[in-house]
Write a structure and sequence with these properties.
Blueprint (H helix, E strand, L loop, with lengths): L2 H35 L4 H34 L2
Helix pairs in contact: 1-2
């Protein structure tokens, strides 16, 4: 790999890593909020469901980017 390709790989890898961390945090915090605060009232339920929905949306985007990066990486010499 040349330097430009290495830089592109590092950028793409960092982006995917950050997205994966966001997914894990959204699901973990969403489940925690649902289990801890949802029985006490509506705000906990809404916040928990919003976090889970955000996790799903970012997961779909992550999957698309991961597939594109995998194809791009296999094309590199």
């Amino acid at each position: 790999m040349d330097e430009a390709t290495k830089k592109a790989f590092k950028t793409r890898f960092a982006t995917l890593t950050i997205m994966l961390n966001i997914i894990i945090l959204c699901f973990a915090i969403g489940i925690f909020v649902l289990l801890r605060f949802a029985p006490e009232g509506t705000p906990g339920l809404v916040i928990g469901l919003l976090l889970l929905a955000a996790g799903v949306i970012v997961s779909i985007s992550f999957r698309k980017r991961y597939t594109r990066m995998k194809v791009w990486l296999s094309e590199q010499p």
